[in-house]
Task: structure prediction
Amino acid sequence: MRKDAFGNNAQNELGDMFIQKYYLEFILHSFSASEQAVKNSLAEFGEDILVVDCQDETERGKNFKISIKTEDPPVVFDICAQFGRIKTVRIEELKS
Result:
């Protein structure tokens, strides 16, 4: 859930029941990021965040498998793109 300017849980005018949530699962390829740095960067933009090292021996750098429930997939992808290249994306719309 998003936070307002005072650190409280924010709610839109119509309430949380109208906010659409998505489940994202993707691979992030990075040369310098750590699991914890990625997870910390995503903490305020989703819930049930899982970042797992899934090294591919044929590639240089690191691969992380990331899963997260979020209200704003573009923000999650923008944040992760700062760490490296996003690939193998799966997006699922969650039912309320």
Notes: The chain has a mean pLDDT of 87. The chain has one domain: 20-93. Residues 20-93 form a domain with the Alpha-Beta Plaits fold (CATH 3.30.70.260).
